[in-house]
Amino acid sequence: MCEDKSVMMSRRTLLAGGASAALALPVLAKDMVDLRLPGGPSLRSLDPAFPGKGKLIVQRVHPPLLETPFSVFDQGVMTPNDQFYVRWHYPMPTEIKVTDFRLQVRGAVKAPLSLALEEVVKSGEIIELAAVNQCAGNGRGQFVPRIPGAQWGPGAMGNAEWRGVRLRDLLDKAGLNADAKFVRFGGLDEPPVPDAPAYRKSVPIDIARRDDVMVAFAMNGEALPLLNGYPLRLVVPGWYATYWVKMLSDIEVLTSEDDSFWMAKAYRMPTVPVKPGDKDFPTTPIGAMVPRAWITNHADGDRIAAGKPIELRGIAMGGDCGIAKVDVLIGDKILCATLGPDEGQYGFRRWSLTLPDAVGPIGPRCTNVKSVSQPLEQDWNPNGYARGGVEFISLVQA
Amino acid sequence: MKRVLASMLLLALSACQPGETVEFADASIELPEDVVAFPVRAGSDAMIRNCSACHSPSMVLNQPKLKPDQWAGIIKKMKDVYKAPINRADEPAIQSYLKATSAPLR
After folding, report:
1. Which of A45, A337, A360, B106 has its CA 20 to 30 A from that of B6?
2. What is the nearest CA distance from B99 to chain A, expressed in angstroms?
């Protein structure tokens, strides 16, 4: 582990990686949070409260955009349901009647299904796994230059133990036609203006048939909160949350690539490096997540005692596979962090390290088991998706 | 503050074993109202008339400093993609309100 200790980096490279100057924390009104988004506006309220939820950063009341305060990630690798972030594109249904609910499986199948909840649960073996659910635009507000859209800080993500039945079992119950190529998912939410594109997402058939892709009915041992998609939600471990369709009610098997808005126009990544202002570059639907790591017990600008060792801890994720190692970059040094228990390749994992001092920007760098390492600089793209560069902080010696 | 109206979510879960029973219950919540409004100045009426039906004012107010052409692109997207019924006569007022929203902080 951490075999590349000899690699040297210049301070200039580190600074270019995104460390911001340490600033004294402003005094905040009660129940306000400063996300420190470059250039602002940065202040967000923890009000109003949402039913069944504890304190969340209210980015937008309707449709709800609620961010998990970053301190929650210091408390453990699982994110409690009542502090799990929330993201709806369109107005969300606020009532579910169990007897009225049906999950459709239709399209290129031999026998279309319309299943009550109790039938969904009995459609196959019940499986459980921990996986990070992360908004494709998590951290959009931290990019420079800034990008329009939901102005998330780093907390549009969470890790939960998901429990459900395999999507594959539902597809096999309906019987896939030989020409099945993609599977499209829709939920109960509807656009406020009827002609707007309904929220539909699709995955290739080989992803849909993966052993660990599930229709989940529980999260951390409890029913999904309504705000997180009760009664059913698609879980695609290792892929961005845009595919984890909430209040899942429609599964449609397609014989060709999905040309609808949310796949063909939105949630797409450039396939070539782009700079701000570039136009007409090729794009592809966003898919698998990238490795990331954060320090959770200190924030940028925190004051620490001079001349004493600094205990650092944080979380990391491998993206679409497990974690090989986490190093901590500080000054021209690269130090090997100690990893906590592996609680599932798609979940968060703890790391920790004691530093002799904390002079200069400090950033944890995750390398996953596919040998993908976080870049030192943030990979800017026009929609602010898939943030994955090393997240540096600076501590102030007091 | 409005709170949970009714309905406890009930989900009886045992360990992952054959014959596991999962029970679902009816659920409903009441979502809170906005607590942040568009600051009142020239154009705020047009913002309320044309924007607030689909999203909270905070979606606008939390945006970074955007150039007028970026705001124009967002208005175009709201109309073309999301079919927002924006009154053409209100567009200049919306544009200038958004431009003022992105004015440098003093």
Report:
1. A45
2. 14
Given a cut of 50, whether residue A362 has pLDDT beyond it is yes
Return d(Cα A17, Cα A365) in angstroms, integer.
Answer: 12
pLDDT, averaged across chain A = 93
Domain locations in chain B as residue ranges:
44-101
**Concatenated DSSP letters for chain B?**
-----S--------SS-TT-------EE--PPPP---PPSSTTHHHHHHHHTTTS-THHHHTS----HHHHHHHHHHHHHTT-----GGGHHHHHHHHHHHTSPP-
Size of interface A-B (CB pairs under 8 A): 137
ipTM of predicted assembly, 2 dp: 0.91
pLDDT of residue B18 exceeding 60: no
The residue in chain B having the minimum alpha-carbon distance to the alpha carbon of residue A220 is B13
Instruction: List % helix, strand, coil for chain A (3-state, nearest 5).
Output: 10, 35, 55
The reply to whether residue A191 touches residue B82, judged by beta carbons under 8 angstroms, is: yes
- Alpha-carbon gap: B27 to the closest alpha carbon of chain A (Å): 5
Taken in order of first residue, the domains within chain A and their CATH numbers are: 1-25+290-398 (2.60.40.650), 93-132+159-285 (3.90.420.10)
Strands A310-317 and A303-304 come out as unpaired
Helix axes B91-101, B68-80, angle to 10 degrees: 130
Report the distance separating Cα B16 and Cα B19, nearest Å.
9
Task: Using alpha carbons, select from A311, A319, A254 the residue that is nearest to residue A286.
Answer: A319
Task: Look at strands A303-304 and A396-397 and give their pairing.
Answer: parallel
Q: Which residues contact B38 (CB under 8 A, 6 or more apart)?
A: B44, B47, B48, B52, B57, B60, B61, B97
Tell me how far apart the alpha carbons of residues A20 and A41 are, in angstroms, rounded to a whole number.
Answer: 16
Third-level CATH fold of B44-101: Cytochrome Bc1 Complex; Chain D, domain 2 (1.10.760)
Mean pLDDT for A179-206 is 97
**CA-CA-CA-CA torsion sign (B51, B54, B55, B56):** positive
* SS3 at position A81: helix
Residue among A51, A121, A217 minimizing CB distance to B4? A51
Which residue, among A30, A43, A56, A61, would best test binding to B if mutated, counting the most B CBs under 10 Å from its CB?
Answer: A61
Q: What is the pLDDT of residues A97-129, one digit of tens each?
A: 999 999 999 999 999 999 999 999 999 999 999
The model's pLDDT over B21-80, given as tens digits with 9 standing for 90+, comes to 788 999 999 999 999 999 999 999 999 999 999 999 999 999 999 999 999 999 999 999
Q: Are A158 and A81 in contact (CB under 8 A)?
A: no
